[in-house]
């Protein structure tokens, strides 16, 4: 069932292209591992098992890693109330609602489809935002579910995770594997090189998709709520407060940057912007200003 979130053909095209290119890279990666490791069954079983686990249990993995837990309407009446109103407006199924006990102000959506989606917000976000700002953030996350890009980014992230695991395995095998002949050492070195290349390619493809999908979610949320200024206010407030979060807490959350409303990094540096999963704050605010102009300044009250 199609929701009332504004469709984005550009996002759909980019998701299809990204999945196609990542599929090619994935096939080439598995083929290279089979040739190098000479173990067809082992490689296929491990790769299929990891992909299946990430796809089917992505919501549980994300909630566990972010210390999140599902909450009932009795436990979080305001949060559920906002989600209920937005889902009714968007004409879409209500996802499960969760809260993460973290001071880091953020939110994310996860799950393989709309029927198995979870919207999670941190206690730090709930404490900092006004109701209209929270509505904008939740509309942003619900649009990810409606556009189905949550499942796409989950699958897309898998290849980088797998390549990273292989690099670590090969590295520690060389480091602690005891005495090895030159052929074995050469094979492990080639496995590391191929895995590093695959990680770099998947990293670039995911970054390109992730940045566009955040702008698409901002636009869809602003058009659904009719309040781009509330979303802009939430972006400004959250981005400013992220900069004051201890570095240790930011590092813990950085693995989930591609899913977050705003990335768990300190903004402002050219290097951070280059490798960020999100557009810069300035770019997102400019896009919301353009939407406000399209609405003629007549935001809904």
UniProtKB/TrEMBL annotation:
Subcellular location field: Cell membrane
GO cellular component: plasma membrane
Chief location: membrane
Keywords noted in UniProt: Cell membrane, Hydrolase, Membrane, Metal-binding, Metalloprotease, Protease, Transmembrane, Transmembrane helix, Zinc
CC cofactor: Zn(2+)
Free-text comment on the cofactor: Binds 1 zinc ion per subunit.
Transmembrane segment boundaries: 12-34, 40-57, 150-172, 184-206
InterPro entries recorded: HtpX_protease, Pept_M48_protease_HtpX, Peptidase_M48
EC number(s) given by UniProt: 3.4.24.-
Annotated GO biological process: proteolysis
Single GO MF descriptor: zinc ion binding
Top EC class for this record: hydrolase
Membrane topology summary: Multi-pass membrane protein
Active site: 141
Protein family (similarity comment): Belongs to the peptidase M48B family.
This protein's name: Protease HtpX homolog
Record organism: Streptomyces xinghaiensis
Phylogenetic placement of the source organism: Bacteria, Bacillati, Actinomycetota, Actinomycetes, Kitasatosporales
